[in-house]
Write a structure and sequence with these properties.
The chain is α+β, with helices and mostly antiparallel strands. It folds into 2 domains: 198 residues, Spore Coat Polysaccharide Biosynthesis Protein SpsA, Chain A (Alpha-Beta Complex), CATH 3.90.550; 159 residues, no CATH class. Helix 4 runs parallel beside helix 12 and helix 9 crosses helix 10. The radius of gyration is 34 Å and the shape is globular. The N and C termini lie far apart (89 Å). 35% of the residues are buried. This is Beta-1,3-glucosyltransferase-like. InterPro entries: DUF604. Pfam families: DUF604 (PF04646). It comes from Gossypium hirsutum.
């Protein structure tokens, strides 16, 4: 093994220089030493200061310790208030039929607002009406005769409806974040739509909606498809990507049935899955929506579809009148619409379920919240059968026992008390004939009206989802029940104490 050379051999010094150096005065040596210490001190200080925002990464490689300096992390930008999505930044594309326009435009007039933007896409022209200023602008869909369509059970109008998002994009409107698709028989709650879409980054690819209530419909089409009648939202950059390839995509799927499954097929080719939001409602059901709406998921109600196939949501009135009444609570506190609260009247042993802005139901006896949050089957499935296995969610049967049937109180009026900062809604008992109950317990039939108090909370959905609590309040007013609904207090549990 080779001997290591001496330091003196590597760095030869002139002997005379060494002799001269040893003759330096001691005070000069002290000065040089002091200067050296100061230099080292400032060098170390500067190095530490410079590395405050650096990540020092140490690794061992081949037995040697190696040090690398990573760049400082880039802080996430804090969203400014102006970055929150507004109604103006959402553009609607509404699929409509000229044959049904005179009837179904009345649904749209109930939820459309002047500051909103969108287009009703028709298959052919319709007459100009005196109410056009209350509606979105109307346009005729482009020619789709070049596209193949060979589904024996469907209609080729599905192709023109498929292209609505792309055609709306090509209008080149400014400041658009989202395109929302819906049908002319869909009722939207615009403020809740804004609340839902504000959760997502509109600069990314998003395809947002929900599936069908029908298990078989989802099997036949897809659980991963957004149903167009219930509405779905596509972010602006995704809409641009879709528009570039959609016509080619449509040609690859001539055998599909409708427009929403074609959209889904194109989304699959783009690699974008469905982001599910339970507030979009296709409502592939028939009959009475009471069971569904009174046990709405803990999520903002965004849309109600198939208005012509289900009964009016309020009894003893037509569909337009019923939706007009629904606009009363929407205008007061849209965030809370249809949100279910469950509580108990301890003195009477009653279970009370409140669907805010819609109904109050009183049951004899004590039912768990787990049971009450399941929709009662007041409706039939899409194939008009009372088969509970046909639904894509849990349901509970409508009781046959006369003593366990709920007493239903529908919203009659509501207002806002500015002094108390709370809404006051009145619910009136729906009169139906029932055989007498033989149970020896308090009879809810003596309650004719229910008053519900609630403080509006526009930021309700900025927090983690949680069901509100309700409390039965004491009252001396005969034939009346009073209920307070609001955020659950500390350690408040929905239980009969």
């Amino acid at each position: 093994m080779k001997n290591n050379p001496k330091v003196e051999d590597n760095f030869p010094w002139d002997q005379t220089m060494r002799n001269h150096f040893t003759t330096f005065p001691k005070f000069l040596l002290s000065s040089i030493l002091l200067i050296s210490i100061l230099c080292i001190f400032y060098t170390v200080s500067f190095s530490n200061s410079s590395n405050k925002d650096l990540n020092i990464i140490t690794a061992v490689h081949d037995g040697r310790e190696e040090v690398a300096v990573a760049p400082p992390p880039v802080p996430s930008p804090k969203p400014s208030p102006s970055s929150k999505t507004t109604l103006h930044q959402i553009v609607f594309g509404i699929a409509a039929s000229a044959r049904l326009w005179d009837h179904r435009k009345n649904y749209i007039k109930l939820w459309w607002k002047p500051q909103m933007r969108g287009v009703v896409w028709l298959d052919k022209g319709v007459k100009t009406g005196t109410d056009d200023h209350l509606l979105p602008q109307k346009m005729i869909s482009g020619d789709t005769s070049k596209f193949k369509y060979n589904n024996p059970k469907g209609h080729r109008s599905a192709i023109r409806i498929t292209r609505i998002v792309s055609e709306t994009l090509r209008l080149d409107l400014d400041d658009v974040r989202w395109f929302v698709m819906g049908d002319d028989d869909t009722f939207f709650v615009p403020d809740n739509l804004v609340r839902v879409l504000s959760k997502y980054d509109h600069n990314q690819f998003y395809y947002i909606g929900s599936s069908s209530e029908s298990h078989l419909q989802n099997i036949n089409f897809s659980y991963g498809m957004a149903y167009g009648g219930g509405g779905f939202a596509i972010s602006y950059p995704l809409a641009k990507a879709l528009a570039k390839m959609q016509d080619r995509c449509i040609q690859r799927y001539p055998g599909l049935y409708g427009s929403d499954d074609r959209i889904h097929a194109c989304m699959a080719e783009l690699g974008v899955p469905l982001t599910k939001e339970p507030g979009f409602h296709q409502y592939d059901v028939f009959g009475n929506l009471l069971g569904l709406l009174s046990a709405h998921p803990v999520a903002p109600l965004v849309s109600i579809h198939h208005l012509d196939k289900v009964e009016p949501i309020f009894p003893n009135m037509n569909r337009v009148q019923a939706l007009t009444r629904l606009n009363i609570p929407i205008n007061l506190d849209s965030a809370a619409l249809m949100q279910q609260s469950v509580c108990y009247d301890k003195t009477q042993s009653w279970t009370v379920s409140v669907s805010w802005g819609y109904t109050v139901q009183i049951y004899r006896g004590i039912f768990s919240v787990r049971e009450m949050e399941m929709p009662a089957r007041t409706f039939l499935n899409w194939y008009k059968r009372a088969d509970y296995t046909g639904f894509a969610f849990n349901t509970r049967p409508v009781t046959r026992h006369v003593c366990q049937k709920p007493f239903v109180y529908y919203l009659s009026k509501a207002s806002y008390n500015k002094v108390m900062n709370q809404t006051v809604s009145e619910h009136v008992q729906h009169q139906v004939s029932n055989p007498d109950c033989k149970w020896k317990m308090a009879d809810p039939s003596r309650i004719e009206r229910v008053g519900v108090y609630r403080k509006p909370d526009p930021n309700l959905w900025d927090k983690p989802p949680r069901r509100n609590c309700c409390r039965v309040l004491p009252t001396k007013k005969k034939g009346t029940m009073v209920i307070d609904v609001g955020v659950c207090g500390d350690d408040e549990v929905i239980e009969l104490r």
